[in-house]
Amino acid sequence: MKKVLVYILAAVMVFSIAGCGSSSEETEAAGTEISAEAGESQMGESLMPGSEEASAVAEGEQAEEGEAAEGEADGEAAEGEAVEGEAAEGESQTSAESAEEAGETVEAVESQTGEEPDQEEGETAESGEEGEEGEEGAESQASDGKLVVAASSTLRTIMDEQFIPQFNEKYPNIVVEMVYDSSENLQNQIESGAAFDLIFIGGKKYMSALQEEGMVIEGSVHALMTNELAFVVPRDSRLGIITVADLEKARSVAIGDPIYLPVGEYTIDTLKEQELWEGVKEKEVYLAASVEELLGMLIDGTADCGFVYQNDAVLEAEKIHIVEGFAPTTYRLGILTSTGRQETATEFIDFMSSDEVLAQLVANGFTLPES
């Protein structure tokens, strides 16, 4: 029984001790909970609206929240700018790469196709120009274009007043430009490279010299007419001059100035050959600078006699008298090798050698050379 009581007492003590420990723990927990509530109450009171500490804390929290928000916004903006920068760089790089690729493509295309077509186009253009020039040349050769004819001064009147107008009427598409000078001067101009198509001069030696130098197309020279040196006197002369031998009866003589007129040079050469020049020099000699001046001296009686080409004397047959003709000279027409219009030039020669033109030459005091 005693043992039983002992066990009961021991159990009671154990339970008591256990209960106290539990109460102590509960008490400590309750105290902790109360302390926490008290702390919260005090904090709550200290953070009540309207209190300075609460406002400071609130402002601090708001500032921190604002700074955090701004930080986040700045971060997002920075991230946005970075993204945009990367995008822009990507686009720029893409554009540059595209432009570079496009440039390389263009260069490749130009190198492969551009130059050769340009060259081909240039060759085609050159061929076209050559073709056009060839066509123009063909048209020029086919009665179209321009001719420059170098002719002796003594031919000026008959060519300008008769034959050139007639040629233009027959060939309206061909423009003929006449250049007049002495036969010797024309020869010198041609030898110096003058751009003539035809040469029409008197005196065999000048044409022969050009032929020997290869400046006249072989086989193109035609001897068209012959002119004579005419010894003339005024129509109303009373000196009794009927032949060249009667020169001694004259006191004055009119001749062409050899510096300006081929007929002047030809007259002096002829008189020397006829051994008449020494007698003429002793008289009063008038030198004329033009055919018109020379004829005028004979028409108005300034000179007692004179020497002119027969064709010029014929033009003034009513006012001057032809005493005698002598020392004929032949006029030859030929095509120069420098011409680019050979067929057109040939048409001009065909016209000048036609029966119609030859008949007019005879009517104007020229004679036709023997065949």
Key traits:
371 residues, alpha/beta, D-Maltodextrin-Binding Protein, domain 2, 3 domains, eight-stranded mixed β-sheet, 59% helix
Model description:
With 371 residues, this protein is of the alpha/beta class. It is built from 11 helices and 8 strands. Mean pLDDT is 72; it is low at 14-143. Helix 4 packs parallel to helix 5 (204-212). It has 3 domains: 1-39; 55-141; 145-363, D-Maltodextrin-Binding Protein, domain 2, CATH 3.40.190. It has an 8-stranded mixed sheet, with helices on both faces. The protein is globular, with a radius of gyration of 64 Å.
What is this structure's SSE topology?
Layout: H1 2-46, H2 52-141, E1 145-152, H3 156-170, E2 174-181, H4 183-191, E3 198-202, H5 204-212, E4 222-234, E5 252-256, H6 262-273, H7 277-281, E6 284-288, H8 291-299, E7 305-309, H9 310-315, E8 320-335, H10 342-352, H11 355-363
Parallel strand pairs: 1-2, 1-3, 5-6, 5-7
Antiparallel strand pairs: 3-8, 4-7, 4-8
Helix pairs in contact: 4-5
